[in-house]
Specification:
This protein is mostly helical. The protein contains four helices and no strands. The chain has one domain (4-98): Helix Hairpins (Orthogonal Bundle). The chain is rod-shaped, with a radius of gyration of 21 Å. The N and C termini lie close together (10 Å).
Amino acid sequence: MLDIKYLRQNIDLVTAKMRERGQEVNLERFVALDAGGGTSSRRIEGIRSERNTVSKQVGEKKKKQGRRHGAHRPHGEVSNRIKELDEALKQVDEELQSI
C-alpha cells in the first residue's frame, strides 16, 4: 500500500509503474477527491474561525449586558455546519484511503 502523500507527489510515476506491471489503474477519482478534500479542510477552518469570532462577541455582549440577546443562535448554526463538513471530509478521507 502506498502512502497518500507519496501518491499525491508522484501520481504520474505510480500510474506508469502500475502500467509497467500490467495493471491499469485509474487515479482520476483519487485526484478529484484529493483536490476537493483540501478545499473542504480550508472551508472548515474558515467556519471554525467564524465560530470563534461569534463566541468572542457573545462573551463580550454577556459581560456588557448580562444576557445574550439571541447572539448565540449564529454560533449554533456555525457549529452544526462544522459538524456536517467534518462528516463529509471524513467520508472523503475514507474513500481516499480505500483507493
